[in-house]
Design a protein that fits this description.
The chain has a 7-stranded mixed beta sheet with strand order 3-9-10-16-13-12-11, sandwiched between helices. The chain has a 5-stranded mixed beta sheet with strand order 20-19-21-22-23, with helices on both faces. A 3-stranded antiparallel beta sheet has the order 5-4-6. Helix content is 29%, strand content 28%. By secondary structure, the protein is an alpha+beta fold. Bound molecules: adenosine-5'-triphosphate (ATP).
């Protein structure tokens, strides 16, 4: 696949924009931050909410074969024995004998410390799960783990969902939630965090149909990113080699995004076979099977798992949307975010902050706020205010000028094309609603669904 045109954003620029405008802050910054933990600020939280809403809409709301779940983060410790996480969820680590930095040995190119060139120890296995205690006594018997993935909550609820929803195969469970990993290699901003959010699907199918459903979800998930506006040339599919396959997987593909540091995993799609249900049935003593009324047989469903990260999607969207150009004779930074993802949909900008414009502008602001996240900005020149909105990806600015008092019209200015149109205040909401997308919020660009590599 061809490399894309030279990127206008490097990670430093993006981190700085996110910090400066209130998308993302280092966690506990006043104490110097906490390694690989991040706080989403006023704009970041909106972006994240919009991503999750778009995902939920696509995989639950618009489908009749999917239902949602919100399982607890703390799970019975036996879960992690059955899943293989207690035994297998480990990274081999080496430590530098001089500077004592630790490295993932499978990431290293040579046999010396990448930081100081020092000698390294033999690899040691390190479990990535965070441990904590349940109840008042800190003893081995009360050890629980912060879940390293949301998936297990869906496997252990398979029977509950089956019995309460009366779904038949194939059907899926979707869940969005926090996951925790004591990652060894960290960095690259929100790409690899120790606390992050996942959007996972566990899709249960008849064993003989696994290949067909695996291919289906691969295409479906790839298309989703394109519908969000991510450029096709910045996405690719990468098949896991036999050596790379996780212990539970029969087949696995990553959807990679071309981040500023290079191609890296945005979402993983795995055919987990019957591994999880068999393991949990063994460990719990419950029979986790499905009765197929057509064949009158009991089967253990196979599971297709598309597993995405909210944070990595946010990072991909920000990288992809970032642009610099010249508008109205001035350099500007802008985010070409899809209107449905933009944190703020509309900014209301009165030309003057005094009477009689302010009351009219405030009235419009109050009205639009009923429907969307809206900013009100009356500070500095109109050009500066447009720049501020462009930089956070606000698709539309509504300007109220002195003429508005006479003709009861306002100007809508569009972020990407810079086009301006004059509309009656009366129909402003309707015009904006049409522009912000109604029924078909996310559509594929022409040819967008062809995913042959
Ligand atoms: P990597 O190889 O990059 O460590 P992984 O293969 O361990 O990722 P999965 O276990 O497949 O990741 O998790 C599914 C998804 O969860 C990933 O595609 C990613 O979007 C997200 N994810 C996993 N680990 C992290 C992390 N430390 N920080 C942010 N997101 C993560």
């Amino acid at each position: 696949m061809a490399e894309s045109a030279p990127r206008k954003v490097d990670m430093e620029k993006l981190v700085s924009l996110c910090r400066r405008r209130g998308f993302i802050f280092p966690s506990s910054e006043i104490y110097g931050g906490l390694s690989s933990c991040w706080d989403y600020g006023p704009l970041g939280v909106e972006l994240k909410r919009n991503i999750k809403q778009a995902w939920w809409r696509a995989v639950v709301q618009e489908r009749d074969d999917m239902v949602g779940l919100d399982a607890s983060i703390l799970m019975h410790p036996q879960t992690w024995e059955a899943s293989g996480h207690l035994g297998g969820f480990v990274d081999p680590l080496v430590e530098c004998k001089s500077c004592h930095l630790r490295w993932r040995s499978d990431d290293l190119k040579g046999d010396k410390c990448p930081s100081c060139g020092g000698e390294l120890t033999e690899p040691r296995l390190f479990n990535l799960m965070f441990k904590t205690f349940i109840g008042p006594v800190e003893e081995e018997a009360s050890v629980v783990y912060l879940r390293p993935e949301t998936a297990q909550g869906m496997f252990v609820n398979f029977e509950n969902v089956l019995n309460t929803t009366r779904k038949r195969l194939p059907f899926g469970i979707a869940q969005i939630g926090k996951a925790f990993r004591n990652e060894v290699t960290t960095g690259n901003f929100i790409f690899r965090c120790r606390e992050f959010e996942q959007m996972e699907i566990e899709f249960f199918v008849k064993p003989e149909t696994d290949k067909q459903w695996f291919d289906y979800w691969l295409e479906e998930r790839l298309n989703w990113y394109v519908k969000l506006g991510i450029k096709r040339e910045n996405l690719r599919l990468r098949q896991h080699t036999k050596e790379e396959l996780a212990h539970y997987a029969r087949e696995c593909y990553d959807i990679d995004y071309l981040y500023p540091m290079g191609w890296a995993e945005l979402e993983g799609i795995a055919n987990r076979g019957d591994f999880d249900l068999v393991q949990h049935a063994k460990s719990s003593g419950k029979s986790l099977v499905y009765y197929d009324e057509e064949t009158k047989e009991h089967v253990v469903p196979y599971i297709i798992e598309p597993s995405a990260g909210v944070d990595r999607t946010a990072l991909a969207l920000l990288c992809d949307a970032y642009d610099e150009d010249v508008a109205e004779g001035e350099k500007r930074v802008l985010l070409h975010l899809h209107p449905a993802l933009a944190p703020i949909k509309v900014a209301v900008l009165p030309l003057s902050r005094k009477e009689p414009l302010a009351p009219l502008a405030k009235e419009i602001y109050a009205d639009l706020r009923q429907q969307w996240m809206v900013n009100y900005d009356d500070a500095q020149s109109i050009g500066r205010r447009y720049r501020r909105q462009d930089e956070i990806g606000t698709p539309f600015c509504v300007t109220i000028d002195f003429q508005s008092l006479e003709d009861k019209q306002v100007t809508i200015r569009e972020r990407d094309s810079l086009k301006q149109i004059r509309v009656p205040i009366e129909s402003l909401k309707k015009t904006l609603a049409a522009k912000l997308g109604g029924e078909d919020l996310f559509v594929l660009p022409p040819g967008g669904s062809v995913w042959k590599e």
